[in-house]
């Protein structure tokens, strides 16, 4: 069946901001889909509020709407664009839910928009727990005993009929949000009440727990002719009970017999048929560890995180094929783009092992509840390929970029055996290392199996690696041992440690023995047919298949797993750099290990290496590919960190030199340069002791900003307001010492401003200035930013431009430079400079319609700005671009709801996982859209709950008065209420927690507040109250902020929406 | 213990012995199935062959009595990358190494089976020797060259049943001509309610009709279909008497009986992911396959039509007679290992038997 000619214009719904459970995989799916649609000559209309994505690039779709993903806005787009079809399956849960809402609102019918791929009833049957249950019963597919409930009472009585533990699963939520396992009725009550609130339809499934069984996933594709194929199955090493997104996963399954595999495969095909899906679908099963008995856990009638993983694991382009199928093609009419000759209607055969390991944010959230369960907590993941399980696992560990690069974790060494058993039993993110530690202590595979329910097949592999650690220490480094160690995936550095050599010695020895990395191809067919797609991974002790071309090659280092502080933005930059290289006639070689991204799509680069981003592994690629140079400016800190070791190994780093980058990275050197250029920066000093720190602080004056000098990325950074807090920080949070110096800086209370510039070492292109809504002190990644800045005085702007261009020239920047400033009055201080592409480059490029990454890449290839048509006017040496008509507001989005016990208040350490953009010609409307897109759903009338710290009361008063005038009800805790009443603002009094129920947290739980404003109080006790208030807001889905700047922005937006004003208001009477 | 695989073109792969030590020779083929190693090793169609698995980890879930496709392993030897040491799955499960020992299978592990696969796909299947003895390589190469070709070997008698046996059921009675039948074909027929009578390969038409069958099932089996002309003759003499269904070798035999010709493929189809198109419906199915011979399309007589083709290379995957209730497929609808997407073909056979069952020419 060829494609349906009636479909000429298609609307694609993106997935919005990156949050836990919904990460870069949908940019990958959406981008592949948009490219496929365009290839088919179809006009693509795209709506997505996430500006960091590649899919929202001008080239990706004919019409791009960077607008909030709310029903109203999507309807508006449909009205204007009149698409023939809607592809709802590429935007994750957001896209799917939106499609359903549109259908329910009758919009699709009214405007004649056909839902492509997945029918509405299929979405309903898969997503609605009740309909799903009925469908499974009809198909005679087994599901765990369960009941659908809409109230806590029913939940409790259902659980009584089953046996505890039971699992609570809310309908229509994502990443297991609001779910959990309850072993007792008290636990069930808590989980059910949250779950009911979080499910958009107030519906829960109370289900018999099958925790401990194997969790297996299938990726299935079906076409309109009813052809069905399974692309891949995946086996979770962690058993059922731990969310698949938080599980270590292998593909293909390792411990399933053919009978088990075929049983589940056949079930998958029956299910996708029954759902009538034309496209891709993900099905999860629980399989009994020792007998042929299974349950269907869930069906996702759309592309998912797992389908991205399956795509990368097999080389099969699922999104592309699903899109073609949705357009009407049958699978046999589509060619396998990897082999270029065979049909897409086949099932990939793998001849390697794929291991996926999640990346969790607990390095950023030290107080977070780290236990893993049915609710996902990981922000990202890595994938590694190997010819054996051991090497794939170790490569995966190295790809994570944790403090440890191996199977040992120092903090576990001190655990007692009992504590280890406890840790085995209640898995957290360290589980893998706990298991290895257990083996080191002589705990048996049987015992570990009993405690973890992990299959002994996997455990024995981990045990094997642990045994090899001591073997290496004993046997030393003869050829045989070394080759075996490399084959098992040990890094040179780790071997060096065991054999008491240096890493370089190991490398040299290895070369002497002729032990070199061999690259193998991912070809979808286990070598049965010749393949055309150069997608490789490394192994040892086997033949090398890499076909090295003679072309002019440049390597782009990717950014690894998505984590807080290093998100999808950096993938955007890597991809654009690869494209720019190809456009400039070079061939682009990408090295990365993140399966969710566009950069690891098989046709993004000329050659793709799926490898850990360590110097050893990157050098292995470089030695064979012999590139003209390496680009390190686009892969975030991951890539920058590789610059020095690569340069030391003799590799050419293109663009800004390594020593020049160091001028920005090394604080000392950077301050020197600032002094030399007479550019102000916050005064500060380095302290080696408590006393030293106190002296510096007294000299600077409180508040001061403190941080350990060795950590990157704002970790453990705090603002302290007095001596007591300082001492507490120095002795408790971080222990200051000669080995662990602390940086103490004057905290400048001012506006934070940020610039991304491109320079060729002589001229500087400055594409506008971003101004943060929140004052300095809140990490730039967590601040809302207005672009271009609309309120800075001309004098300040000129200073910023001048400082930027002088710094760029002084540091001989060839490529990207990001600078953060604080503005206090007319004074401009430089906070820091990053000699690389930043988080904000994607959105600026879009708003300005200026390809910053391309320009920078071309500079690194040797062109100047002038060569590219950017000629500075006059003497200044810089070109300043700023959008005239449009204002963009970038706003951060957080995933606090998924992370129990995490402090939600904002500070100098970044906490957000994603961002949205509000775009409009009217700055206030842009702000309004940003709030909407970020999920602040504040009604025009409603209740605002305020609990304000004393230091902020005066500032808050004005703002609250404003809300009061707009007709909002203000509710407040006693102190704040008293202040308001004193000023004639009526306020509902709400108890503090210590005053007893019903108190402020109850108020939130009962859904009485529409917005919670809670500013931070210093000191112990009230801070804990604040914490509980903020957590309650997050858990019950109520907008909450700790920044009065943010509240002021909300007020301004709300004010702009009222249509009537009195004459007095207009004339200010 | 070290082991070596030597191919007739002089290519050598080093590894370690797995299974029984010693020396073995045969035609070296590869299978891309990712699960079902036990079913592969016990598939009688691999008689005369040394089978290499492209999936690198083998033995992960051990060996269970219920996954045997024949009483013993038929392959001459196995080539794998890595053998699992600790295995998954409960107490009833045996280790792969024990299975290999018990079946006297000589094997080699630690082989780069991907490189071997690419070699075979480029140069075609060839003869080879696995040795764990210290025999010099040049001697092994010479020995490999002197091995009989697959077509020259009498393999059918090695795997076919010596005596007729019956698996009681009810209607219909199916005569299974055992050229090396896989247990799952028999199991599938039994599950459908058939009385299954398994007959030795060289049974005469009279032997077959003596069991009063409602249909004839011509099974899979090893080697070149042209090496067993007696069987072709038997089938030919029964054309028109009985509904017939052929699988794999049985499919080739039926084609030969109808007057078509077969040829040896470069490296054949072995694995569980081969797409096959049903030409009548346009539907595509993922199939399990294990064959090195195929039907020459131009040789098919007029009264025979192609029902299925391989989507990758267009080779014939199924035929049927225009008028008589005869059909056969190159792939394995019984799976084991492999997908079960085409088990319906057994139902088609049942339907043919119900419409036109019973012997018409005793
Ligand atoms: N009946 C059950 N018993 C124990 N754990 C379960 C059960 N059902 C689901 N889970 C666990 O909860 C996780 C999340 O459930 P799922 O329905 O897949 O939600 P999501 O939509 O977030 O993927 C699963 O990956 C599985 O590990
Ligand atoms: N001296 C200072 N005065 C005021 N705010 C500061 C100061 N130094 C840092 N900050 C705040 O802390 C945030 C993080 O600091 P920064 O040095 O940029 O760390 P990172 O490397 O994580 O980006 C900044 O975005 C800014 O809001
Ligand atoms: Mg799930
Ligand atoms: Mg910063």
Estimate the mean pLDDT confidence of chain B.
Answer: 95
Global geometry of chain A: globular
Count the E strands of chain A. Answer: 40
Give the radius of gyration of chain B.
20 Å
Distance between the termini of chain B: 58 Å
Assembly type of the chains comes to heterodimer
Estimated structural class of chain B: alpha/beta
What's the average pLDDT of chain A? 92
User: What is the CA-atom radius of gyration of chain A, in angstroms?
Assistant: 28 Å
Sheet with the most strands of chain A? 9 strands, mixed
- Strand line-up across the major sheet of chain B: 10-12-11-13-14-19-18-17-15-16
pLDDT under 50 segments of chain A (min length 5)?
none
Which two protein chains have the largest interface (Cβ within 8 Å of the partner's Cβ), and how many residues from each?
A-B, 56 and 53 residues
Treating each run of at least 4 consecutive H or I residues as one helix, how many helices of chain A?
36
Low-confidence stretches of chain B: none
Shape by Cα distribution of chain B: globular
């Amino acid at each position: 069946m060829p494609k349906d000619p009636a479909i000429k214009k298609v609307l694609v719904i993106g997935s919005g901001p990156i949050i836990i459970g919904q990460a870069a995989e949908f940019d990958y799916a959406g981008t592949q889909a948009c490219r496929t649609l365009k290839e088919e000559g179809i006009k693509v209309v795209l709506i997505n509020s996430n500006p960091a994505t590649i899919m929202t690039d001008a080239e990706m779709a004919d019409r791009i709407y960077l607008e909030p993903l709310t029903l109203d806005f999507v309807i508006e787009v449909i009205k204007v664009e009149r698409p023939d079809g809607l592809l709802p399956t590429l935007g994750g849960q957001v896209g799917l839910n939106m499609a359903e809402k549109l259908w329910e609102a009758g919009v699709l019918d009214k405007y004649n928009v056909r839902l492509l791929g997945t029918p509405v009833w299929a979405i309903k049957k898969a997503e609605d727990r009740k309909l799903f249950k009925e469908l499974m019963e009809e198909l005679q597919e087994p599901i765990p005993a369960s009941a659908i409930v809409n109230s806590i009472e029913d939940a409790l009585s259902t659980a009584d009929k089953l046996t505890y533990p039971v699992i609570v699963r809310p309908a229509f939520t994502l990443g297991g949000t609001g779910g959990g396992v309850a072993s007792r009725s008290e636990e069930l009550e808590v989980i059910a009440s949250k779950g009911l609130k979080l499910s958009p339809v107030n519906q829960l499934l109370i289900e018999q727990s099958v925790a401990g069984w194997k969790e297996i996933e299938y990726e299935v594709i079906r076409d309109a002719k009813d052809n069905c194929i399974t692309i891949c199955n995946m086996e979770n090493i962690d058993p059922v009970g731990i969310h698949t997104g938080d599980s270590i996963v292998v593909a293909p399954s390792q411990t399933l017999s053919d009978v088990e595999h075929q049983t589940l495969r056949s079930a998958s095909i029956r299910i996708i048929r029954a759902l009538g899906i034309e496209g891709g679908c993900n099905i999860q099963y629980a399989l009994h560890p020792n007998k042929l008995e299974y349950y269907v856990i869930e069906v996702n009638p759309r592309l998912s995180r797992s389908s991205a993983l399956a795509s990368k694991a097999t080389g099969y382009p699922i999104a592309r094929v699903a899109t073609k199928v949705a357009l009407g093609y049958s699978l046999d009419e589509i060619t396998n783009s990897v082999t270029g000759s065979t049909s897409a209607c086949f099932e990939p055969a793998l001849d390697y092992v794929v291991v996926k390991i999640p990346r969790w944010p607990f390095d950023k959230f030290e107080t977070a509840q780290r236990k893993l369960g049915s609710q996902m907590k990981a922000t990202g993941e890595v994938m590694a390929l190997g010819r054996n399980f051991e090497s794939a696992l170790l490569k995966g560990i190295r790809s994570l970029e944790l403090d440890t690069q191996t199977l040992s974790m120092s903090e576990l060494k001190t655990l007692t055996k009992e504590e280890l058993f406890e840790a085995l039993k209640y898995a957290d993110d360290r589980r893998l290392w706990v298991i290895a530690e257990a083996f080191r202590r002589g705990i048996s595979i049987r015992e570990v199996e009993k405690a973890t329910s992990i299959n002994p097949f996997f455990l024995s592999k981990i045990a094997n690696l642990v045994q090899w650690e001591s073997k290496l220490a004993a046997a030393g480094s003869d050829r045989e041992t070394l080759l075996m160690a490399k084959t098992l995936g040990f890094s040179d550095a780790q071997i060096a440690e065991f054999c008491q050599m240096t890493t370089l010695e190991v490398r040299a020895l290895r070369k002497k023995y002729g032990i070199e990395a061999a690259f193998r191809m991912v070809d979808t067919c286990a070598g049965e047919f010749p393949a055309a797609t150069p997608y490789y991974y490394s192994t040892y002790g086997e033949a090398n298949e890499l076909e090295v071309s003679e072309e002019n090659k440049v390597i782009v280092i990717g950014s690894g797993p998505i984590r807080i502080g290093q998100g999808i933005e950096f993938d955007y930059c890597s991809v654009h750099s690869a494209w720019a290289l190809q456009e400039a006639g070079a061939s682009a070689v990408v090295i990365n290990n993140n399966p969710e991204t566009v950069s690891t799509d098989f046709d993004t680069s000329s050659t793709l290496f799926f490898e850990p981003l360590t110097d050893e592994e990157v050098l292995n690629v470089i030695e064979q590919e012999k590139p003209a140079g390496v680009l390190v400016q686009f892969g975030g800190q991951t890539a920058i960190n590789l610059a020095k070791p690569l340069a030391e190994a003799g590799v050419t780093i293109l663009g800004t030199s390594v020593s020049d980058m160091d001028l920005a990275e090394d604080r000392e050197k950077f301050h020197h340069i600032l002094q030399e250029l007479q550019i102000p920066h916050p005064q500060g000093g380095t302290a080696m002791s408590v006393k030293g720190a106190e002296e510096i602080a007294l000299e600077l004056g409180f508040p001061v900003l403190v941080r350990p000098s060795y950590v990157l990325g704002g970790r453990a950074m705090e603002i302290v307001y007095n001596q007591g807090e300082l001492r507490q920080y120095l002795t408790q949070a971080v222990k200051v010492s000669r080995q662990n110096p602390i940086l103490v800086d004057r905290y400048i209370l001012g506006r934070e401003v940020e610039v991304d510039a491109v320079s060729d070492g002589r001229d500087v292109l400055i594409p506008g200035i971003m101004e943060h809504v929140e004052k300095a002190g809140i990490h730039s990644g967590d601040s809302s930013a207005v672009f271009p800045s609309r309120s800075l005085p001309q004098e300040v702007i000129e200073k910023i431009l001048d400082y930027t261009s002088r710094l760029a020239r002084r540091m001989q920047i060839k490529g990207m430079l990001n600078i953060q400033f604080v503005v206090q009055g007319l004074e401009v201080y430089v906070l820091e400079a990053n000699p690389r592409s930043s988080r904000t480059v994607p959105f600026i490029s879009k708003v300005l319609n200026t390809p910053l990454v391309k320009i920078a890449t071309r500079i690194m290839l040797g062109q100047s700005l002038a060569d590219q048509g950017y000629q500075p006017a006059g003497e200044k040496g810089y070109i300043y671009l700023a959008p005239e008509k449009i204002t963009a507001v970038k706003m951060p989005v957080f995933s606090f709801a998924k992370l129990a016990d995490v402090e939600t208040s904002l500070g100098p350490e970044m906490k957000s996982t994603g961002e949205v953009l509000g775009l409009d010609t009217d700055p206030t409307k842009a702000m309004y859209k940003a709030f909407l897109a970020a999920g602040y759903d504040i009604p025009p009338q409603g209740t605002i709950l305020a609990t304000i710290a004393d230091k902020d009361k005066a500032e808050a008063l004005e703002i609250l008065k404003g809300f009061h005038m707009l007709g909002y009800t203000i509710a407040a805790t006693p102190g704040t209420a008293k202040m308001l009443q004193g000023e004639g603002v009526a306020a509902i009094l709400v108890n503090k927690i210590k005053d007893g129920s019903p108190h402020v947290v109850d108020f939130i739980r009962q859904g009485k507040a529409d917005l919670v404003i809670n500013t931070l109080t210093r000191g112990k006790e009230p801070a804990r109250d604040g914490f509980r208030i903020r957590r309650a807001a997050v858990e019950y889905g109520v907008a909450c902020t700790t920044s009065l700047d943010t509240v002021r922005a909300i007020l301004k937006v709300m004010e702009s929406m009222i249509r009537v004003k009195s004459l007095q208001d207009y004339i200010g009477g | 213990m070290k082991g070596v695989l030597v191919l007739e073109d002089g290519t050598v792969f080093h590894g370690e012995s797995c299974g029984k030590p010693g020396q073995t020779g045969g035609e070296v083929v590869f299978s891309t199935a990712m699960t079902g190693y036990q079913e592969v090793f016990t598939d009688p169609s691999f008689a005369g062959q040394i089978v290499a698995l492209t999936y690198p980890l083998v033995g992960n879930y051990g060996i269970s009595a219920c996954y045997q496709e024949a009483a013993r392993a038929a392959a001459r030897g196995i080539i794998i990358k890595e053998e699992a040491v600790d295995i998954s799955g409960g107490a009833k499960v045996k280790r792969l190494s024990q299975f290999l020992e018990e079946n006297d299978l000589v094997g080699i592990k630690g082989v780069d089976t991907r490189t071997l696969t690419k070699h075979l796909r480029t140069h075609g299947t060839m003869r080879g020797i696995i040795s764990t003895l210290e025999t010099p390589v040049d001697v092994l190469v010479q020995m490999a060259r002197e091995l009989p070709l697959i077509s020259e070997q009498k393999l059918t008698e090695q795997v076919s049943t010596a005596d007729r046996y019956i698996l009681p059921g009810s209607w219909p009675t199916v005569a299974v001509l055992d050229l090396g039948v896989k247990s799952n074909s028999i199991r599938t027929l039994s599950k459908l309610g058939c009385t299954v009578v398994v007959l030795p390969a060289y049974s005469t038409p009279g032997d077959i009709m003596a069991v009063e069958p409602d249909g004839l099932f011509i099974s899979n089996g090893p080697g070149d279909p042209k090496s067993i002309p007696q069987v072709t003759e038997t089938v030919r003499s029964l054309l028109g008497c009985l509904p017939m269904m052929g699988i794999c070798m049985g499919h080739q035999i039926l084609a030969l009986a109808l007057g078509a010709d077969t040829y040896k493929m470069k490296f054949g189809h072995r694995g569980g992911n081969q797409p096959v198109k049903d030409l009548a419906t346009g539907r595509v199915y993922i199939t399990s396959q294990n064959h090195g011979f195929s039907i020459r399309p131009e040789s098919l007589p007029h009264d025979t039509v192609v029902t299925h083709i391989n989507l990758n290379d267009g080779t014939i995957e199924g035929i049927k007679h225009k008028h008589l209730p005869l059909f056969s497929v190159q792939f394995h609808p019984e799976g084991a290992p492999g997908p079960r997407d085409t088990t319906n073909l057994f139902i088609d056979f049942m339907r043919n038997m119900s419409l036109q069952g019973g012997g018409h020419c005793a």
